[in-house]
Structures are given as C-alpha cells and as structure tokens.
Amino acid sequence: MSIVPKLFNSRKIVLNMIGKRGFNVDKYSNFTFDEIDVLFNSSNNKLSNELAPLDIKLENDGYSLYIKYVLNLKNRPTNIINFIQEFRDTQMNEGDTLILITLDKIISETLDEFLDNLYEEFKVFAQVFYIDKLMYDVTEHVLVPKHIIISEEEKSKLLNNLSINNFDQLPIILKNDPVAMYCGAKKNEVMKIIKNSETVGEYISYRYVQ
Questions:
Q1: How many CA atoms lie within 13 A of 93 on its CB side?
Q2: Cβ distance 38 to 12 under 8 Å?
Q3: 3-state secondary structure of 168
Q4: Vertex 92, ends 87 and 94: CA angle to 5°?
Q5: Which residues, including other chains, have CB under 8 Å from residue 102's CB and lie 6 or more apart?
Q6: Which is nearest to 191 in space by CA: 143, 158, 142?
Q7: Mind listing the pLDDT tens digit for each residue in 38-96?
Q8: Chain segment 100-151, per-residue pLDDT in tens
Q9: Cα 129-125-191 angle, rounded to 5 deg
Q10: Are 174 and 207 in contact (CB under 8 A)?
Q11: Cβ-based neighbours of 29, under 8 Å, separated by 6 or more
Q12: How far apart are CA 31 and CA 50, in angstroms?
C-alpha cells in the first residue's frame, strides 16, 4: 500500500502546525497529491544529512526550522539519535528546530533524554512525530481548549499572581502530550490554557511542561 496519502495529509497538518508557530509556509502549502507523489518517488529512503525533495527548510527571525521525513522503515532509537547528532553538526545553529516525521512509531526513554539534553546543552530543539499522529489537527478538536506557551516575562509575573514559589506547584502537562508537541512546548515552559464555559465564560489555567 502506498504511503503517499499519509505523506500528503501529514504535510498539510505539519505546515499548519508550523504556521501557528510563526513561520511563513505559503511556499509549500499548495502542493497537489500528484506533486507529493513525485517528490516521494524522487527521494532516497535512507537517512541523509542532505535535504530530500520532501523535506522543508523555513526561516523566521534568523532561526531555521527543518522538517525532515525519515522514510527508512527500520528506524531504531539509536539510528535517530545518531542522525540528529550528525544533522546538528552539519546543518543547525543555536536556536534552530528540527522536526522528524517517522513512518515507524518510536517510544524510547533514551531518545527522550537525548532530546532534552540536546536543547539544554546546544539550544537546538528537535521533535519526533509518528506520521499516523499527523492525520488530523489535534488543536481543532471541539474538546481541545486553546493552549499558549507563555513568555519568560509572563512566567515571572505568574509566580506572584498565583502566590506560588515554583512552577512545579502547577499541574503538569507532559512535553509528549499531543497538544504540547503540536505547540512546540519545551521542558520547563508553562502553557496557558483557555477554556470557554457557558456558565463562567472564559476560564484560564496553567500547566508546567515536563
């Protein structure tokens, strides 16, 4: 069975996701199914530091964001880790973001720890998305409230406003939560959650990303 339908659908979702993070995605937004099919068939299915026809590079405020499809169906956490290390060394600078979209589901504590250390040590942010989780926009579901990552300045004010000493006193949202991943939330950030209620109107809460 061809994976092109999944590639086509996931591309629309990930571009919408990146657009909400402030990147201009107009250049890539109107590709047809047939065009994605051509890009897929002209791509190498092995991991490579070079950008393949399906891959995307975007710029915003001097920072780069890379969207890279991993088409090797025998992905392993160690392969992904090695690839990200090489890609950072050859392509990325401090403040850049890498989004890998895999065709296999990868669950690995080692990979999670590596991604955390990558950001803490090099300020390079990388996320790994399983393609089947990019078939729909999770933020557009009627039951999902609006999530916003607040700034460092807002975080400082929040401690006083809520009369708390540490952010870990807030309820937690995991960085691998689908909405947190969609928003690009990093560990130790705080997310503002806005819910609309017929009885109390707008209700605001906060979650600490872990």
A1: 4
A2: no
A3: helix
A4: 135
A5: 70, 75, 80, 128, 129, 130, 131
A6: 158
A7: 999 988 766 778 899 999 999 999 999 999 998 875 678 998 999 999 999 999 999 99
A8: 999 888 889 999 999 999 999 999 999 999 999 999 999 998 889 999 999 9
A9: 80
A10: no
A11: 15
A12: 21
C-alpha count within 13 angstroms, C-beta hemisphere, residue 203: 8
Q: Two tokens at 57? A: 């590079």
The predicted model scores a pTM of: 0.92
Distance CA 37, CA 5 (A): 9
End-to-end Cα distance, the chain: 38
Strand partners, 192: 148, 206
In sequence order, the 6+-apart residues with CB closer than 8 A to the CB of 179 are: 138, 139, 144, 147, 173
DSSP, res 190: E
Distance CA 5, CA 1 (A): 10
Hey, which residues does 66 pair with through a beta bridge? 57, 98
**Token pair for residue 47?**
């991991």
